[in-house]
Design a protein that fits this description.
This protein has one domain: Four Helix Bundle (Hemerythrin (Met), subunit A) (Up-down Bundle), CATH 1.20.120. It is built from 8 helices and no strands. The protein has helices at about 5-10, 15-20, 25-35, 40-50, 50-70, 70-85, 90-95, 100-120.
Protein backbone atom coordinates (compact mmCIF):
# COMPACT_ATOMS: atom_id res chain seq x y z
CA UNK A 1 0.00 0.00 0.00
CA UNK A 2 1.31 3.44 -0.88
CA UNK A 3 0.83 6.49 1.29
CA UNK A 4 -1.61 7.86 -1.28
CA UNK A 5 -3.61 4.62 -1.11
CA UNK A 6 -3.62 4.86 2.68
CA UNK A 7 -5.05 8.35 2.50
CA UNK A 8 -7.78 7.15 0.14
CA UNK A 9 -8.59 4.25 2.47
CA UNK A 10 -8.89 6.47 5.56
CA UNK A 11 -10.79 9.26 3.78
CA UNK A 12 -7.99 11.78 3.92
CA UNK A 13 -6.73 14.24 1.35
CA UNK A 14 -3.25 13.13 0.28
CA UNK A 15 -2.68 16.07 -2.05
CA UNK A 16 -3.58 18.56 0.67
CA UNK A 17 -1.26 16.80 3.13
CA UNK A 18 1.59 16.98 0.63
CA UNK A 19 0.91 20.64 -0.08
CA UNK A 20 0.96 21.37 3.66
CA UNK A 21 4.02 19.32 4.63
CA UNK A 22 5.82 19.51 1.26
CA UNK A 23 7.46 16.07 1.37
CA UNK A 24 5.99 12.59 1.39
CA UNK A 25 8.44 11.42 4.05
CA UNK A 26 7.13 14.13 6.39
CA UNK A 27 3.53 13.19 5.69
CA UNK A 28 4.42 9.57 6.42
CA UNK A 29 6.23 10.48 9.64
CA UNK A 30 3.29 12.52 10.93
CA UNK A 31 0.56 10.11 9.84
CA UNK A 32 2.37 7.35 11.76
CA UNK A 33 2.53 9.65 14.79
CA UNK A 34 -1.25 9.87 14.64
CA UNK A 35 -1.26 6.47 16.33
CA UNK A 36 0.27 8.17 19.40
CA UNK A 37 -2.31 10.95 19.45
CA UNK A 38 -5.32 10.09 21.60
CA UNK A 39 -7.46 13.19 21.18
CA UNK A 40 -10.15 11.37 19.18
CA UNK A 41 -10.36 8.61 21.78
CA UNK A 42 -10.35 11.21 24.55
CA UNK A 43 -13.31 12.90 22.85
CA UNK A 44 -15.19 9.60 22.63
CA UNK A 45 -14.44 8.78 26.28
CA UNK A 46 -15.24 12.28 27.59
CA UNK A 47 -18.59 12.31 25.77
CA UNK A 48 -19.42 8.82 27.09
CA UNK A 49 -18.71 10.02 30.63
CA UNK A 50 -20.92 13.09 30.17
CA UNK A 51 -18.11 15.62 30.53
CA UNK A 52 -18.98 18.30 27.98
CA UNK A 53 -16.07 20.55 28.94
CA UNK A 54 -13.53 17.76 28.40
CA UNK A 55 -15.41 16.78 25.23
CA UNK A 56 -15.06 20.31 23.86
CA UNK A 57 -11.34 20.43 24.67
CA UNK A 58 -10.70 17.02 23.09
CA UNK A 59 -12.78 17.93 20.02
CA UNK A 60 -10.81 21.15 19.60
CA UNK A 61 -7.51 19.26 19.80
CA UNK A 62 -8.71 16.50 17.46
CA UNK A 63 -9.94 19.07 14.96
CA UNK A 64 -6.48 20.65 14.80
CA UNK A 65 -4.56 17.38 14.62
CA UNK A 66 -6.82 15.99 11.90
CA UNK A 67 -6.74 19.24 9.93
CA UNK A 68 -2.94 19.31 10.00
CA UNK A 69 -2.83 15.73 8.69
CA UNK A 70 -5.64 16.34 6.16
CA UNK A 71 -7.78 13.58 7.67
CA UNK A 72 -10.91 14.99 6.10
CA UNK A 73 -13.69 12.97 7.72
CA UNK A 74 -12.19 13.03 11.20
CA UNK A 75 -11.51 16.75 10.92
CA UNK A 76 -15.06 17.46 9.76
CA UNK A 77 -16.68 15.40 12.50
CA UNK A 78 -14.50 16.76 15.30
CA UNK A 79 -15.07 20.30 14.00
CA UNK A 80 -18.86 19.87 14.04
CA UNK A 81 -18.70 18.50 17.58
CA UNK A 82 -16.31 21.24 18.70
CA UNK A 83 -18.53 24.02 17.37
CA UNK A 84 -21.69 22.52 18.88
CA UNK A 85 -20.00 22.27 22.29
CA UNK A 86 -18.28 25.66 22.13
CA UNK A 87 -19.45 27.84 25.01
CA UNK A 88 -21.99 30.36 23.74
CA UNK A 89 -23.22 28.13 20.91
CA UNK A 90 -26.31 26.84 22.73
CA UNK A 91 -28.54 27.26 19.65
CA UNK A 92 -26.19 25.15 17.53
CA UNK A 93 -25.85 22.65 20.39
CA UNK A 94 -29.63 22.22 20.47
CA UNK A 95 -29.71 21.53 16.71
CA UNK A 96 -26.82 19.07 16.65
CA UNK A 97 -27.11 15.34 17.28
CA UNK A 98 -23.76 14.95 18.98
CA UNK A 99 -24.44 11.30 19.82
CA UNK A 100 -24.75 10.53 16.10
CA UNK A 101 -21.60 12.51 15.30
CA UNK A 102 -19.70 10.62 18.02
CA UNK A 103 -20.83 7.31 16.51
CA UNK A 104 -19.58 8.42 13.09
CA UNK A 105 -16.33 9.58 14.68
CA UNK A 106 -15.84 6.18 16.34
CA UNK A 107 -16.12 4.43 12.98
CA UNK A 108 -13.88 6.91 11.14
CA UNK A 109 -11.29 6.83 13.94
CA UNK A 110 -11.22 3.02 14.03
CA UNK A 111 -10.85 2.99 10.23
CA UNK A 112 -7.97 5.49 10.36
CA UNK A 113 -6.12 3.64 13.13
CA UNK A 114 -6.61 0.29 11.40
CA UNK A 115 -5.43 1.65 8.05
CA UNK A 116 -2.39 3.38 9.52
CA UNK A 117 -1.44 0.28 11.52
CA UNK A 118 -1.71 -1.83 8.35
CA UNK A 119 0.44 0.68 6.46
CA UNK A 120 2.98 0.71 9.28
CA UNK A 121 3.40 -3.08 9.24
CA UNK A 122 4.13 -3.02 5.51
CA UNK A 123 6.73 -0.22 5.65
Amino acid sequence: MTLKELYAQIDGDYDEAISRLRMERLVERFILRFLDDHSCQELIDAWASGDEDASFKAAHTAKGVCANLSLTTLQDLSSQICEALRPGNEALRAQTDIDALIEELKVAYANAVSGIEEYKTKH
